[in-house]
Amino acid sequence: MKKSLVFVCLIALMGIMNVQSYAYEKIGFFEMKEVILKSERGKQAAQELKKLYDEKKAIIQHTEKDLRERKNYLEKNTSVLSSAEKMKLESDYQKKFKDYQDLVDGANKELKKRDEEIASNLIPEITKVVKIIGEKDDYTVIMHERYDDIPYSKNSDITNIIIAEFDYYIRTNQVRDSSTRKKLSPVFENNSSKISFFNLTVVLQQSEVGKKAAQELKKLYEEKSAMVKDAEKELKISKDYSRNSDYQKKFKDYQDLVDGANKELKKRDEEIASNLIPEIMKIVETIKKEDNYTAIVDLTTVAYSKKDKDITDKIIYKFNQYAKMNLTPDQRITVNSSAALDKGQPEITITQPDVQRGIKVVAKKESITVIGKATDKGGVALVEVNGEKASLDENGNFSVDILLKVGENNITVTATNIYRIEKTERFSIVREADVIATSKSIISANTDLPEASTNIKTGKYYALIIGNNDYMYLSKLHMAINDAKDVAKILKDNFGFETKVITNAKRKDILSNLNNFRRKLGTNDNFLIYYAGHGEFDKASDKAYWLPVDAKRDDPTEWIIADEITSSIKRLSSRHVLVVSDSCYSGTLARSIETDLSKKGPRGEFIKKMLKRPSRTLMASGGNEPVSDSGGMGNSIFADSLIKALNNIEHKTFTADELFYHQVRSRVAGKSEQVPEYKEIRNSGHEGGDFIFVKVR
Predict the structure, then answer these.
(1) For the chain, which residues make up each domain, given as ranges?
(2) In the predicted model, is pLDDT for residue 152 greater than 50?
(3) Distance between CA 530 and CA 488 in Å, rounded?
(4) How far is CA 507 from CA 471, 502, 563, in A?
(5) Which of 211, 239, 345, 510 lies at 20 to 30 Å from 268 by C-alpha?
(6) Minimum mean pLDDT among 20-24, 533-537, 549-553: which range?
């Protein structure tokens, strides 16, 4: 196994032209491939490669001729040859054909290797010449190729100049001054451009988050390396003491282990990069806006740049400030790393609700939106309201939805600057005692019977949890597997569910697991199906679908139609089934009116009634609309809201209806445009009951 930490580097050209005037920028670009092909050294290398190609081609053609002759002889004489002669000739032919294939493969590999060697020898020399030209001619930047975000003139292409100077350099070991060249270097001066550079690889490797990720990857490498070494020991023993067939099997297992370990390391490496790069790009964009840059360019696309234009250290500094505050990519913050910073407390102004000295704030609703502004000379990093991270824009404006209990609610607003200095404001909101404000509610605020749960027998609880990220033919998701694992954990730990988690599931995986549960479930049991992945709605057929990991956009043969889900649910013997779907168009899986469980009554008695009646219901992250794959702390908005609701609901025993209308819906609505839904699933065996959750701890 080869130890490696390879972060994928992406081109970062941020923004559009800025009309503000700056000192001129001299910009050039060239085509590296053209320099290699047209330079004298490149032409010489191409001739060497062609000579090698011709040699290999001649050998292959000779071998092909021999094979054709052997094949023709067999075909012409097959009727007169004895079986033994024919078998021997066929065997010889197959051996020669295998040798021919190996010859072709070997020739292609040798040609490819030589081609790469030529490029690896030429590119550093060409780059050296480009850097000398950049310094001599006072270029701001010389890039490998042209990009639309940066303005150019027709004279910005200096490929021919680099070819000429590279040829001269090879002959003399010198690069001429522009004044002595036959053709002067073109000068492109743009008074409306301001450009800087950064090295994405350096940011990834030297930032605190990048170092932590490297340590994580190193630990995984060491674990896999130890497993491989143990397998190597067993393989040696098998070779020394076992039969040959046993050795071959163990050798195959060993190869699979090595391949699997390398794939896992590569996958984790790519995951780290895909998680970190968007965060870094947000920081780059922030700096671009703060300092009025036309573009900030990743140095991986640059052959030469002025050293004083490199802002890599500045980006690392700001990235480390993000990390210190444990911020998510979606939290937009202002960190002024350019100014002299005042390490005083931030300031907080609350604009909603109307908090005035001596006046009590009274609310009737189950939640309230807290809105305000936090300011600090150095930059506000984080705002929390009762421990909930508020949405925060670059100007310090924040908002967050807070759930209210009946009676007095103490509200604490805390703003933190980049130095982790906090400022706190406190106020209280009194929520009037009333039936919880929703037409769908069935629970009176003062009728809770805690003892009810001890008298209720609910049967066993099972959950099939599905999370799809790595789609083969569709855009990949980032949070679905995290969502599935986190939901499974809280169901298992807090509610005693027996869970089955499947990730990156194909159609057959989902349907076969549903069928396995059908055989397992008893008549008093409870079954929850959770799906996080792509969804689709076909307007022509008016049908909704789950999209398995191998689904193709224009081929519904591998999709799972809502009717199949409904049919599978109908065949289940369990009394209560709850489908939780976090996918686009998930609300259309149940073509039905929303549940209406609005009858009031004692809480304990009502729960018993809901438990007694069979239920088949759907909790969907949205209606007939796309939904977000992010927005929570490592989860989608919906999954984050569901997990927090399951953690924070005050009752030990509660219905899915209560969970949704009193917790989930308001949390999702406060953070996004999507509107979650809770419905009965028509034609599935629903008889007016509801899914009952019972905490085990």
Answers:
(1) 1-23+194-324, 25-190, 347-431, 459-694
(2) yes
(3) 9
(4) 12, 12, 14
(5) 510
(6) 20-24
Neighbouring-strand partners of residue 604: none
In the structure encoding, which two tokens stand for residue 678, read together?
Answer: 């809770």
Q: Which tens digit of pLDDT belongs to each residue from 379-414?
A: 787 888 887 778 787 778 888 888 777 778 888 899
CATH for 1-23+194-324, among 3.40.50.10860, 3.30.910.20, 3.30.1330.10, 3.30.450.20? 3.30.910.20
- pLDDT(302) > 70: yes
459-694: which CATH topology?
Answer: Rossmann fold (3.40.50)
Position 449 scores a pLDDT of 34
Instruction: Write the CA distances from 42 to 54, 281, 571, integer angstroms.
Output: 18, 37, 71
Token representation of residue 476: 């990949």
Q: How many CA atoms lie within 13 A of 298 on its CB side?
A: 20
pLDDT at residue number 251: 80
The answer to whether the 1-23+194-324 and 459-694 domains have the same CATH topology is no
d(CA 536, CA 474): 12
Measured from the Cβ of residue 45, the count of other Cβ atoms closer than 10 Å reads 20
Rounded mean pLDDT, 297-308: 77
Q: Check residue 360 and report its DSSP letter.
A: -
CATH T-level fold of 347-431: Immunoglobulin-like (2.60.40)
Q: What is the DSSP string of 441-457?
A: ----TT---GGGGGG--
For residues 604 and 654, the answer to whether their CB atoms sit within 8 Å is no
Residue 351: phi and psi, rounded to 5, are -105, -20
Contacts of residue 404, Cβ cutoff 8 Å, sequence gap at least 6: 363, 365, 366, 367, 368, 429, 431
pLDDT tens profile 514-540:
988 988 898 889 999 999 988 887 666
Instruction: Please tell me the distance from the alpha carbon of residue 634 to that of residue 484, in angstroms, as a whole number.
Output: 12
Measure Cα distances from 624 to 529, 588, 603 in Å: 20, 6, 33
| Phi–psi pair at 33, nearest 5 degrees | -60, -40
Q: Is the pLDDT confidence value at 489 over 90?
A: yes
Q: What is the pTM of this model?
A: 0.41
For residue 439, is pLDDT > 70? no
Confidence tier at 577 by pLDDT (50, 70, 90): very high
Look at residue 503 in the predicted model and tell me its pLDDT.
94
Q: What are phi and psi of 28, to 5 degrees?
A: -140, 155
Mean pLDDT of the region 671-696: 81
Distance (Å, whole) CA 344 – CA 74: 93
Question: How does 309-348 read in b/e, with b if 16+ C-beta sit within 10 Å?
Answer: bbbbebbbebbbbbeebebeebbebbbebeeebeeeebeb
| Strand order through the sheet with 141-143 | 189-190, 25-29, 141-143, 302-305
